[in-house]
Amino acid sequence: MDSKHQRVKLNDGHFMPVLGFGTYAPAEVPKDKALEATKLAIEAGFRHVDCAHIYNNEEQVGLAIRSKIADGTVKREDIFYTSKLWSNSHRPELVRPALERSLKNLQLDYVDLYLIHFPVSLKEDIGIITWKKSPKHNS
Q: Which residues form the NADP-dependent oxidoreductase domain (predicted)?
């Protein structure tokens, strides 16, 4: 993959790779797989990495990025890192702490793009169960 030619110029003059590596995985996938897969993606030429606090794998994704920087595969400025604000942190006073928590988990100094993950706000820990398996379907 020639990532230098597969990018778009943003209105601020920066470039964003058009093809990104998404790091979401279901809960049953071991977290170390995010580390392994992200390293392989960077080795394969991916320069846009997409993650989010709600994925519960920021530590592993950050470690993968830092290890590929340490071994000389990439520099930090070569990676376009996208993160997302979860729906329980939309209030203005919660945005910066949410971003700082992600940066701490990642052990990175900055993200390149910070999106609102889902444009509907949720209260934190309100105890609502959205879906529950019916007892008659336990098998």
A: 19-120
Compute φ and ψ for 41, nearest 5 degrees: -65, -45
Structural domain count of the chain: 1
Q: Which residues are catalytic?
A: 55
Quick one: tokens of 123?
């209260």
In a domain, 139, yes or no: no
Query: Model-level pTM?
Result: 0.82
Assigned domain for 24 exists: yes
pLDDT digits (tens, 9 = 90+) for 104-119: 999 999 999 999 887 7
Phi-psi region of 41 (alpha: psi -120 to 50; beta: other; left: phi over 0): alpha
Amino acid, single-letter form, for residue 3: S
CA distance 24 to 44: 18
